[in-house]
């Protein structure tokens, strides 16, 4: 571990100074595309204005013989496209793969000034982040990059979950963590073959009831991911970085996708991945607080003055703690409204009601 005194020193001569606070930029959806797939890459100029984050994926879902095409495709897209204020991220290959080193060498030297965040898969502990941290500093110095590229870890191994707190605090570059339910299921030897979401077999059953105990007993499906997600949210919040739900693989089941995303939103996540264009609008809807909730939050904040004491609003007790909860909602709404004029107008209209 670096001494706290040295934590914010650049790790290479000539590298930019690390950030002291993770900038909160709206990232309701991290939209995945395969930059080596010409059809998908051609859609980038149209998709970019509709998403908060565009991510060129180089890892899983890109076939081994297409890895280099994906890497060079991302360089091409980044150089050719003006993304406006949409962030550009990439997911590199895992650190033990034959491609990760070249991913970092090529991307930072060719398009490091355009990349906001590098997502690192299968992070197992702080040592993985430390490796990427130093290498990025060396490459940033070599390429003359002026602002540090941030790092996002995917939580998708049992060891990673066991070490999630140290991963979250491993470097000032740490921007956030996403849940990786598919690899995590495999790593844990779970028996689901789905990418995220629930499972009909993971349930609790109502107690026996009725005259002889034989009445039909309701079952309630439980959330396989609740423990990991909650642990990840706490680790992120404790270290001032951002938690995300990852992918939902049943593209056609938009209802369950929305439910899963909403659980994550309510639990503290700021966004989720969109794997297909149909999931973009779902993430946007879910990870933007509703106009009614924002209006309520502002009403409480106004009524609470300096935030101390207790007041009643519409029969509900408000105090310092609810004031802080309302500030979370109002601050998120302000950040989203600054990026999204439609949302700004909806929030303003709801406040007038
Ligand atoms: C566990 C994990 O690691 S998750 C992360 C890794 N996985 C990914 O990144 C997957 C990304 N998504 C995809 O590859 C695709 O969406 C698939 C394979 C799931 C489905 O693709 P398709 O079978 O082509 O879906 P579909 O036919 O509904 O696509 C409709 C259109 O949207 C396009 N499209 C699909 N996904 C995307 C995307 N992510 N970005 C941009 N365009 C897309 C298709 O090219 C197609 O275009 P067309 O109408 O011009 O032909
Ligand atoms: C997100 C991811 O990579 C996984 O679920 O495995
Ligand atoms: Mg994975």
UniProtKB/TrEMBL annotation:
Which superkingdom does the taxonomy of this entry point to? Bacteria
Put simply, this protein is called: CoA ester lyase
Classification lineage: Bacteria, Bacillati, Actinomycetota, Actinomycetes, Kitasatosporales
Source species: Streptomyces bugieae
Q: Which cofactor does it need?
A: Mg(2+)
Please provide, alphabetically and separated by semicolons, the GO molecular function terms listed in this UniProt record. Answer: lyase activity
Q: Which residues form the HpcH/HpaI aldolase/citrate lyase domain?
A: 32-194
- What is any Pfam family matched here? HpcH_HpaI
- Stored InterPro entries: Aldolase/citrate-lyase_domain, Citrate_lyase_beta/mcl1/mcl2, Pyrv/PenolPyrv_kinase-like_dom, Pyrv_kinase-like_dom_sf
Question: What are the record keywords, sorted?
Answer: Lyase, Magnesium, Metal-binding
